[in-house]
Amino acid sequence: MSEHIHDHSAVLNLLHSELPADEMLCDLADLFKLFGDTTRMRILYSLFESEMCVCAISELLGMTQSAISHQLKVLKDANLVANRREGKTVYYFLADDHVRTIIGQGFDHLCEERGSAE
Q1: How far from chain centre, in Å, is Cα 65?
Q2: Whole-prediction pTM value?
């Protein structure tokens, strides 16, 4: 019996030239870790439709303003949310359409997986 050996060199050569640097992949992994927290996901989803101040997010999610502020700082440091000041009130919003797309695609994937549109 002869073993069938197939040549992976073409695909490996392509991947070696296309694979991002380890630092970039590490940063990407860190980005996705931020989405691994339910509170942060609740905040991001809250900001999906409209900008909101900390007190409104706090009321919506039934959490303290301190807890919301802490998570907003984490999200802001990662460039997932941005803010603007209007008088004494600071309004938070999704930083860009990439954030909206990541959340939307993840949600669509789960809905498709579950066979429903929640």
Answers
A1: 22
A2: 0.81
